[in-house]
Structure formats: structure tokens, C-alpha cells
Amino acid sequence: MGQAKIIHNESFLTKVSDALGSFLKVFTGDDNFVLGKLKQADIIVDGKHYQALGKMLVSGKISECYRLTLEDDAENDTELVLRRLVDNFTRQHPNCANMLKREFEIHKELKLAECKSLIDIYDYIPEEKSVISKLIPGISLRQFVEQQPEYLFKRRTTIKFLKELIKTINFLHKKGLCHFDITPDNILLKLTPDHDMVLLNIGLAAAYYDKVDIGPFVDTTLPPEMQKGRFCDQKTDIYEIGQIIKFIINVRKKDPTRASNHLKMIAMKCTRKDHEERYDNVMEIYRDIEVWEHKYDNFFDGV
């Protein structure tokens, strides 16, 4: 751990970039511009020099990612990702400043790399409080449905995706972890014919695993218990799975009403405000998805 490191480039261009970032922050209030040094730095991983080439994924409320490419070989297939916490998040939740370090430790301790739908974390960089992982070509679920909404109109592909997601969350639950950040931006769909799913960013899982008092989140799309800073558990993940199902339902506008209603009932049970009225575990959702799969086998399958 900690073998990777960052060597900052104190060149004139770096200083200009920093000044521009500070200028933009004054007018936009966005700290994401103040990253000149990171963009101009050499990141040393396994003795090889990489450079950050700008944002690779949409910046979330908790973390943001940067693509790292070998500076001496533009055609090299080995690309990495550097993920760091968003400054606004660490200011609002100072107890989480070392969240990514714990995520890296727990990832190795619990052997989370055994699950193919989770990103394997290579290393942790103390200087930037960042983690390094392999780049998996793909786009977020949110970006995917914006570009290819007809793909998720199909019932079979919807079922495949939801089963993969539920199995991944069940894997975490069996390890004693909850994700607590299951959003369309934290679900990656690979650029392969099958569009297999990868679940990103389990940093909050590490925080709750250590029972860190994070406090409330100001976001009306989150489970009620997270908004109020109350106890969260597996049923919090179930609520967020329900929100993902609702997101997909909004895309599946051309699916027959009868088939969609069954999926809506699953989403409604997942997202009950009363914690006790939700599914008891994620495999109960899985079984209801299977019922939906077989009940409408002779129905119109999508676009």
C-alpha cells in the first residue's frame, strides 16, 4: 500500500492553470476547476509514469475520476483511473476525509476483487487521498440511456441488468458491507456487446462499515434515513435499487402497461418511506424480478 505517488510539476503552465482555476472558482463556486497541479503531475504506479488527462467520468457528489495514461506510450492499452473525494464533500463531512484509504484497505481485507462487477483497487496515494484502479471502458447508466434508450426498452436486457445489480449488492451484503451510493452515475456499463454492469465507488460502504458518523445528506432523492442522518442498513440499499428501477421504468415508455406495472410494484415496495415495509433482503427483489421474467414471456419484448 502507498507505493504509488504523485510528483507535482511546478512549471509556469501549472501556475497559470492554478490561477485560472482560482479565478473560475470565484465566479462559479465550483472547486473542480482547482486541479491544475493534478493535471500537470506525474503519477508513478509500479515504477511507470502516468499523467492525468482530465475528467473521465461525470463528477459525483462524493468523488470524481481522472483518466491516467502512460506519458511515454500513447498507444499503450494499460490505462488507469485516479479517484479523489470532491472538496465540497469533505468540507461537509470532515469525518470522511480518509474514506478512500479505508475503502482500499477493506477492498483487500474482504477480497472484493472476487466479484467481477466491482472495480479492483490497485493502490492508495496518501498525498492526494486518492485511489488508483484499472480503467474499464464504458459509460455510466445515465449517459447510456441518454445515448441508447432503445436498449433498455427491451425486457430481457432490463432483467439481465437488474439481476447483475442485485447479485453484486448481495455479494457486498454477505461481506457485511452496504453500498449506500447506488445511483445511475455510479453504475458503469461496459463497451462490450453484452453491456455488462460494473458498480463503482464503495467509499460510503467503508465509512458505514467503520460506523463513522457521517451525518445527514441534503438530497431529496436519497433514502429518508440518509437525509435525516439516521441508522442505515441493507434496506437503505434496497431503497436505492428501487430508485434505479424507477429510472429504468421512465426509459421503458413503449413497454406494455401490464408488464410495466409488475416492475412498478417492485419499485414501490423498495422505496417505501417506512423502513420496515421494504423488502427484507435483495434476493426477495431478485425472486420478484424472476416472476416478472416468466409471467410475460409471450409479451411484446421491446422496440
Task: Write a structural description.
This protein has helices at 12-28, 36-39, 87-92, 99-109, 141-147, 155-174, 203-209, 224-227, 234-251, 257-270, 282-295; strands spanning 5-7, 42-45, 48-55, 63-70, 80-85, 121-125, 130-134, 138-140, 187-190, 197-199. The chain has two domains: 5-134, Phosphorylase Kinase, domain 1; 138-295, Orthogonal Bundle (Transferase(Phosphotransferase), domain 1), CATH 1.10.510.10. With 303 residues, it is an alpha+beta fold. Helix 4 crosses helix 7, helix 6 runs antiparallel to helix 9 and helix 10 (257-270) runs antiparallel to helix 11 (282-295). The model is unreliable at 31-37 and 298-303 (pLDDT under 50).
What labels describe this entry?
303 residues; Phosphorylase Kinase, domain 1; Transferase(Phosphotransferase), domain 1; 2 domains; 40% helix; disordered C terminus
SSE blueprint and pairings:
Elements: E1 5-7, H1 12-28, H2 36-39, E2 42-45, E3 48-55, E4 63-70, E5 80-85, H3 87-92, H4 99-109, E6 121-125, E7 130-134, E8 138-140, H5 141-147, H6 155-174, E9 187-190, E10 197-199, H7 203-209, H8 224-227, H9 234-251, H10 257-270, H11 282-295
Antiparallel strand pairs: 1-2, 2-3, 3-4, 4-5, 5-7, 6-7, 8-9, 9-10
Separation of termini? 49 Å
- Beta-strand portion reads 15-25%
Q: CATH homologous superfamily of the largest domain - what is it? A: Transferase(Phosphotransferase) domain 1
Helix content: 40-55%
What global shape is seen?
A: globular
CATH topology of the largest domain: Transferase(Phosphotransferase), domain 1
Per CATH, which architecture of the largest domain?
Orthogonal Bundle
Helix and strand composition category: alpha+beta
| Rounded mean pLDDT score | 79
The Cα radius of gyration reads: 20 Å
Order of the strands making up the biggest sheet: 1-2-3-4-5-7-6
**What is the helix/strand order?**
EHHEEEEHHEEEHHEEHHHHH
Major sheet characteristics:
7 strands, antiparallel
* CATH structural class of the largest domain: Mainly Alpha
Q: What's the total count of β strands? A: 10
